[in-house]
Amino acid sequence: MGVRARGFQVPSVDQFSETFTTENFENGLVLREREADRYDADLNAMAGYANLDFHLGQKLSGNGGVRFERDEINVLWDVANYVGRVGSIKKEYSKLYPSLNLKYTLNDKHSVRFASSLTQTLPEFKELAPFEYVSPTGRVTRGDPDLEKSDVFNVDFKYEFFPSKGQLISATAFYKDIKNPINLAQTRGSSGIFEYANTGDNANIFGFEFETRIELLKNEDEESLLDFNTNITKMWFNQDLLEDFQYKGITESDLQGASDLILNSSLSYNSKTEKEFNATLTGNYSSDKYSL
User: Fold this and answer.
1) The predicted structure's pLDDT at residue 2
2) Fewest Cβ atoms closer than 10 Å to its Cβ: which of 12, 79, 184, 251?
3) Percentage, residues of the chain above pLDDT 90
4) Distant-in-sequence, close-in-space partners of 225: CB < 8 Å, separation ≥ 6
5) Which residues lie below 8 Å from residue 68, measured CB to CB, with a gap of 6+?
């Protein structure tokens, strides 16, 4: 929406009503409306999988499987910043995604697990449509029709200790390799527009996770009254940068939107009485997130 207002002045930003009057509109003030920007999108997914559970002896068990998935993304837009206003894209992806999970039981209280899988991250509709969104702070963000999905290779190794029924202490090491990582980056030039893009060929994440579920207080029936849960994750990550996103000789960066340290804890009380009383105290922390 705009206004052609030659010869008219607004006393202040708080007094538009003194200018937008019937008399002024009859004397040359024109209110101009442009067609609204819009986009329409849909995702059609078809998948099938095969899975096998197995035991090898008394200690080793696991399951392996493969999933076939076909995804079709259709986006249609009608926006002022696109030449001709109207455009559309159709993206189709078909791929097999295998997975493997193994568990080795050391004894009644200790076990180790191994897991590996191949997954994907599809671009969101807003990341594909060249629809310019202006935030309350004035930042302009738009999608990129040339954006492609990311493929993710996952591996993790986990140790579990069960002090007693209902309690757990575990430690996990994990690794992720992301092909075609998607980030929000500022375009070159003076416009200052931010655009979703595949900013690199690969991103790598390595980390550790520590988790506990501990019963601090029990009643006479050995029922837990006070529980403490915590989860701590520490990560290291980096990705390469394609030439269009390099600056000042920097060819690598951290992973956008990721925190290298995340902590979650809770302390819960349950009276386990006829008139049950519950109370939970929670705390969360995450380090600063990186932006490109």
Assistant:
1) 46
2) 12
3) 58
4) 217, 218, 219, 269, 270, 271, 272
5) 47, 48, 49, 94, 95, 96, 97
Q: Are strands 38-56 and 60-78 parallel, antiparallel or unpaired?
A: antiparallel
Q: What is the band of 245 on the pLDDT scale with cuts at 50, 70, 90?
A: confident
Examine the pLDDT at 39 and tell me if it is beyond 80: yes
Q: Which residues of 168-182 are buried (b: 16+ CB within 10 A; e: fewer)?
A: eebebebebebbbbb
Residue pair 41/76 in contact by the 8 Å Cβ criterion: yes
- The predicted-structure confidence for 209-234, as pLDDT tens digits, reads as follows 999 999 888 888 878 889 999 999 99
If you average pLDDT over residues 269-276, what whole number do you get? Answer: 86
**Residues of 191-207 as b/e, b for ≥16 C-beta within 10 angstroms?**
eeebbbbbbbeebbbeb
Is residue 51's pLDDT more than 80?
yes
CA distance linking residue 150 with residue 160, whole number of Å: 31
Nearest one of 236, 177, 232 to 209, comparing CA atoms? 232
Residue with tokens 């996990």: 172
For residues 44 and 224, give the distance between their C-alpha atoms in angstroms, rounded to a whole number: 46
